[in-house]
Amino acid sequence: MENWDDMRVFLAVARAESLTGAAPVLKMDPATLGRRVARLERSLGAALFVKSPQGYALTDLGERMRDHAAEAEATLALAVDEGASAALTGQIRIGAPDGAANFLLPQVCAAIQADNPDLEVQVLALPRVVNLSRREADMAITVSPPVAGRLRVQKITGYHLHLAVRVDAPPVATLADLRGRPIVGYIPDMIFDKELDYLGALGADGVQMASNSVAVQLQMIRQAGVGIVHDFALPFAPELRPVLTDQLSLTRAFYLVRHDSDRQSDRLNRFAQALIAGLQAEVVRLERMARLTDSPLI
Q: Which sign, positive or negative, has the C-alpha torsion 33, 38, 40, 41?
């Protein structure tokens, strides 16, 4: 590569597999990126991408170049860390399922950013697993530990879920009392992790109102439905109350996933440590509030 900027352009296009996908990352327009890629390929005398209407796929040479460039990028990040001050700076992006993104990360990230004024924290809320290999994010929160890839996985904390209905709904003494009531849950063919499939616990054959978003599901239950709700989300919905807690109680866990090449990054290590501690404390705080249903949200 001619210079670091060429490597940055190449890596962004390789990870996004398109010019339009890489453009917002680099804050450049797709046409300029196309010219930059073409210029780089001319200077190398070889094609790095196979271009098609579907996007930019790496050639064999491009794949080898990507691996070397990613290693160089990680080495440069470590060098920057070496000279970093005690306070965290720069930009860090976290990918997360929208339950964590809506009800946990805003408070936790605000506290971390308040301690590090020059830090920019971005939360990427997606109804799917974040692709760290393509550098969609610096780290990701998942509900299942990944088993493939060069990834570093740390368990953050367990959390609880219970059945919830409106406070003014008819009494629910047994699961049989749910018959005839609209069940809220995930769109079945968009459940991206087996840990999010709660229908078996409910003994339900299907859902009458569904969304791929936890936040939308909560709003649906607020209207007229019944569904599984994170205990840490209940303080944000005083119209809801948990029911059948002695008969139906689910436990899941959050995991922090990072690319293995970032293992020696002091900056990311310190941020991850603060993130894990903050999430652990926030889950405990909100679940305690959920048990004290008369307590206001603070």
A: positive
Prediction pTM value: 0.69
Q: Would you say 185 and 250 are in contact if contact means Cβ atoms under 8 Å apart?
A: no
Determine the Cα–Cα distance for residues 144 and 155; give it in Å rounded to an integer: 9
Half-sphere exposure (CA, 13 Å, Cβ side) for 174? 1
Neighbours of 111 (CB within 10 A): 15
State in Å, rounded, how far the first CA of the chain is from the last one.
Answer: 53
Express each pLDDT in 14-32 by its tens digit: 888 888 888 888 888 889 9
Mean pLDDT check: name the lowest of 69-78, 98-107, 143-152.
69-78
List beta partners, residue 185. 210
Range with the largest mean pLDDT of 67-71, 146-150, 199-203, 225-229: 225-229
CA separation (Å) from 135 to 14, 51, 194, 196, 255? 10, 21, 24, 25, 18
